[in-house]
């Protein structure tokens, strides 16, 4: 093997991989600090205190001393110089040329090989990703790691991965488990939130696309299982200290930190294993959103009716602790105790401008240019602007405790018993100050989706127009306090009998009981009109908001926003306490008792001289569901936005489902494998913002005094969604870590749930009808958004195919260490404009990663592509009542690594380095609907093993 200079090779790859000038700029600026870390290992621990951060920042060269604090270290370029600088002090390798030329599978390539081997050995159709070492998961976020798996898509909040979809079905159709047991979501109405979990929790993640009878039901799309670290899987004692600095470019400021400690040890001659891991993380990010929230439709022409600015500044403080104790007192008995607790304290500071073009009258809007069914340029006269600051405090937590007992003391028998408890809680406290003024005139031009042009006759930064005596609206606080929680307790027993009767290798049976509770409790705090006599003035307390959309578009990118702190102090000085009213129609409780039994046969043999493995089984799931809610009466006189409770109601429903499954894996050759899997799967009725099992209603009052009622009729009698699915895959394994697979899948979904807005002729004795825009209104102008949910009587066919490739390029290139991974998934949804439809579905998704590594350096450049996908107001706040389509986008991520020695390693990551944005249109691709900017993020980390 030709010897390559580490410095030269590193530099060549940096130049090839860094595709944005700002990334290169940061790397160069931070290189001096990295060199100091490399030459002084003890300085690595400086970031563990603020003093340390200050100390390290002060070591910057004169050329960079005047810059504001960004990251302290630039890993790769500093590491490149360190490699050359340390060459004289590093012991030379042995002269054995064979040892030098030996290919060593390490780090990222090792994680790929491990994941591929797990996939190969599994009889099910599955894909996964593995940690290369404890605490070194190959991604910054578990959701972002999972998206590298074929068929998996993620949805992001402020650019941070949060929820996933599998094969076109949304996040609430996937089941998430930890070590095979349910992990309750901290907010069950949003689907499982992966961003509350730090990557250090996982040693591996597997997505099971075909189930076996011994798995919990509930994953209609698939089951995501997160395996945690088990001490018996780790050799010897390990103590690992880790730290990370991270920064999102759009929000700026100083980087935030993350710190972690892991301890693994063994006692009693290896019979007792202990693992304990903990971490604390702070994050800051920002998202800027510009979108058309409402349209008027006349003669099939869409005219802008409501334009919105929204800037979201988010701060997160995240803590996690997980541990495991494994005890094996005898050869045949093992007991495990595994616990996990994750807490996420997130606050959001939202500054928003809402331009109500059609208020007080739709005649305010005068089209100037009309093209392709859209008023692309309009003149707006004498309309209202609502300017608000909204603060949201969103603490959430999720936890689980599992005890396991495994006994093999009886010949040919294997027994497992599990007791499990999991809980998720979320609290959402929000308040807002809303100020309304009149804007004399404005023009809006959306002809070019890349450059929306918006001008106003009065500058948005002019504080004089916010004189308290002339405000159209001046309210505080408009908000609520919501508590959402779920918990589950479970017990199961499994017995396996090894038979070796011909092809029948073993049989197993089991039973499980689960008790699940989902609950929601809401208190409203609304419409405290603030008198002008003591209202804060914008001139003295207003907050300057600047650089909206990162300076993009031709529009006012700065405005002055009300100050919530000033409003709190003003009410406090007057001795005013805001009434907190219980919202009975927003509160409910769902209880489910789930009982399941299963039987499964495991087979192994040969057919036509081809060896195979298989299982066939059946699972019966019994569900007893009870919904408890409140009956509303008249409006609460102290807060007319909510009703008084007139009583309670209880709705019960029970059902049974028989779920057969079969999996077959045939070795066509030593390296070629064929899989066939068929199963019936289910997901119980889900709850989201429009589909409520309980009856719910909220209301609000706009600046004209009209009320907006949001009502869910409550469908406690919905049946579970089921699907008959088929998988057929061909997998070729050739060489260590190399593999190519292609597969076809089909899901025929029955009882698909869909929700639709309805407009009955009356509601609670109020006559209703639809206006020209299709909005359900009363005679006095009040709006009624009434949602009903139904089971679709059709069988909806979802099918597609996947291709996955992992390849080392050592045999093809003169330089060892290069490789690639790539996958592509195509999903064909049922084409229907009515009934059950798939939102958040991209028909085409693809991921590709090119990597290079040796024992010192590593580099990865990843691309993640999603084709266009539809969203409704259920999936996105920014979709509006008519929904929208998110355009296709590709995101590029860069990861660089340097191993200083066997104990100390560094990593640098730049996420979304191409500044991919979220852009949306309404029905017609030329009809602009939304532009969202989040920008790139940067991470710099170290890990030290003691």
From TrEMBL:
Residues 128-223 form the TonB-dependent receptor plug domain. It is found in: Cell outer membrane. InterPro entries: Beta-barrel_TonB (IPR000531), Beta-barrel_TonB_sf (IPR036942), Plug_dom (IPR012910), Plug_dom_sf (IPR037066), TonB-dep_rcpt-like (IPR039426), TonB_rcpt_bac (IPR010104). One of its GO terms (cellular component) is cell outer membrane. Keywords: Cell outer membrane, Membrane, Receptor, TonB box, Transmembrane, Transmembrane beta strand, Transport. It is a multi-pass membrane protein. The keyword Transmembrane applies. Residues 466-913 form the TonB-dependent receptor-like beta-barrel domain. It comes from the Bacteria. Its main location: membrane. Belongs to the TonB-dependent receptor family. This is TonB-dependent receptor. It comes from Caulobacter vibrioides (strain ATCC 19089 / CIP 103742 / CB 15). The lineage of its organism: Bacteria, Pseudomonadati, Pseudomonadota, Alphaproteobacteria, Caulobacterales.
């Amino acid at each position: 093997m030709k010897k390559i200079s580490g410095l030269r090779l590193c530099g060549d790859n940096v130049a090839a991989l860094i595709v944005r000038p700002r990334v290169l700029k940061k790397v160069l600026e931070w290189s001096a600090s990295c060199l100091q870390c490399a030459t002084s290992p003890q300085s690595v621990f400086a970031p563990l205190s603020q003093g340390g951060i200050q100390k390290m920042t002060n070591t910057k060269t004169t050329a960079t001393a005047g810059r504001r604090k960004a990251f302290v270290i630039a890993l790769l370029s500093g590491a490149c110089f360190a490699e050359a600088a340390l060459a004289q002090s590093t012991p030379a390798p042995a002269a054995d040329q064979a040892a030098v030329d030996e290919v060593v599978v390490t780090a990222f390539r090792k994680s790929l090989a491990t994941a591929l081997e797990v996939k190969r050995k599994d009889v099910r159709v599955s894909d996964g990703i593995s940690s290369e070492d404890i605490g070194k998961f190959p991604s910054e976020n578990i959701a972002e790691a999972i998206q590298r798996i074929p068929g998996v898509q993620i949805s992001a909040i402020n650019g941070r991965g949060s929820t996933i979809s599998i094969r076109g079905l949304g996040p609430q159709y996937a089941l998430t488990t930890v070590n095979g047991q349910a992990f309750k979501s901290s907010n069950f109405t949003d689907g499982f939130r992966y961003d509350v979990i730090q990557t250090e929790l996982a040693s591996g993640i597997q997505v099971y696309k075909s189930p076996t009878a011994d798995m919990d039901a509930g994953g209609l799309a698939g089951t995501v299982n997160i395996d945690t670290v088990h001490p018996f899987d780790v050799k010897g004692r390990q103590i690992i200290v880790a730290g990370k600095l991270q920064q999102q470019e759009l929000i700026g400021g100083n980087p935030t930190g993350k710190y972690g400690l892991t301890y693994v040890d063994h006692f009693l001659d290896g019979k007792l294993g202990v693992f304990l891991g903990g971490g604390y993380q702070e994050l800051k990010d920002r998202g800027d959103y510009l979108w058309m929230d409402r349209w008027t439709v006349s003669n099939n022409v869409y005219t802008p009716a409501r334009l919105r600015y929204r800037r979201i500044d988010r701060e997160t403080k995240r803590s996690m602790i997980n541990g495991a104790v494994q005890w094996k007192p005898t050869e045949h008995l093992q007991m495990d105790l595994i616990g996990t607790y994750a807490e996420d304290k997130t606050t959001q500071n939202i500054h928003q401008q809402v331009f109500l073009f059609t208020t007080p009258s739709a005649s305010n809007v005068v089209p100037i240019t009309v093209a392709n069914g859209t008023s692309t340029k309009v003149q707006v006269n004498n309309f209202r602007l609502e300017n608000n600051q909204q603060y949201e405090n969103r603490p959430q937590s999720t936890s689980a405790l599992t005890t396991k007992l495994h006994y093999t003391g009886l010949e040919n028998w294997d027994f497992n018993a599990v007791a499990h408890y999991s809980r998720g809680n979320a609290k959402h406290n929000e308040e807002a100050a809303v100020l309304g003024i009149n804007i004399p005139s404005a023009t809006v031009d959306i002809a070019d989706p890349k450059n929306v042009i918006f001008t106003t006759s009065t500058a948005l930064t002019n504080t004089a127009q916010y004189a308290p005596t002339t405000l159209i609206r001046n309210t505080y606080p408009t908000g609520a306090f919501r508590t959402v929680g779920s918990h589950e307790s479970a017990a199961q027993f499994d017995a396996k009998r090894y038979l070796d009767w011909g092809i029948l290798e073993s049989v197993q049976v089991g039973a499980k009981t689960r008790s699940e509770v989902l609950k929601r409790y809401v208190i409203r705090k609304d419409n405290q009109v603030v008198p002008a006599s003591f209202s804060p003035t914008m001139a003295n307390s207003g907050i300057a908001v600047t650089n909206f959309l990162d300076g993009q578009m031709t529009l006012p990118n700065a405005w002055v926003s009300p100050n919530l702190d000033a409003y709190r102090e003003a009410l406090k000085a007057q001795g005013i306490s805001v009434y907190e009213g219980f919202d009975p129609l927003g509160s409910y409780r769902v209880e489910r008792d789930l009982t399941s039994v299963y039987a499964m046969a495991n087979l192994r043999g040969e057919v036509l001289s081809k060896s195979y493995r298989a299982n066939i089984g059946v699972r019966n799931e019994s569900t007893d569901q009870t919904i408890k809610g409140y009956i509303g009466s008249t409006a609460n006189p102290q807060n007319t936005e909510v009703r008084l409770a007139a009583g309670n109601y209880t709705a019960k429903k029970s059902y049974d489902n028989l779920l057969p499954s079969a999996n077959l894996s045939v070795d066509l050759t030593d390296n070629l494998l064929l899989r066939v899997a068929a199963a019936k799967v289910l997901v119980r009725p889900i709850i989201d913002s429009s589909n409520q099992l309980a009856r719910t209603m909220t209301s609000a009052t706009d600046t004209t005094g009209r009320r907006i009622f949001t009502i869910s009729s409550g469908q406690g009698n919905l049946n579970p969604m089921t699907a008959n699915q088929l998988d057929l895959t061909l997998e070729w394994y050739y060489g260590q870590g190399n593999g190519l697979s292609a597969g076809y899948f089909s899901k025929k979904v029955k009882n698909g749930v869909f929700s639709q807005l309805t407009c009955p002729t009356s509601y609670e004795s109020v006559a209703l009808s639809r206006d020209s825009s299709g909005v359900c209104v009363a005679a006095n102008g009040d709006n009624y958004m009434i949602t009903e949910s139904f089971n679709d009587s059709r069988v909806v066919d979802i099918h597609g195919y996947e291709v996955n490739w992992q390849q080392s390029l050592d045999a093809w290139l003169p330089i060892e260490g290069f490789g690639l991974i790539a996958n592509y998934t195509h999903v064909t949804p049922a084409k229907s404009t009515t009934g059950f439809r798939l939102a958040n579905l991209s028909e085409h998704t693809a991921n590709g990663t090119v990597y290079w590594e040796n024992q010192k350096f590593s580099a990865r450049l990843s691309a993640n592509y999603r084709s266009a996908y539809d969203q409704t107001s259920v999936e996105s706040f920014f979709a509006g009542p008519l929904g929208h389509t998110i355009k296709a986008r590709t995101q590029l991520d860069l990861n660089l690594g340097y191993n200083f020695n066997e104990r100390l390693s560094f990593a640098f990551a730049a996420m979304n380095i191409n500044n991919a944005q979220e852009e949306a249109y309404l029905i017609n691709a030329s009809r602009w609907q939304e532009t969202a900017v989040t920008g790139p993020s940067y991470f710099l980390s170290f890990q030290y093993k003691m």
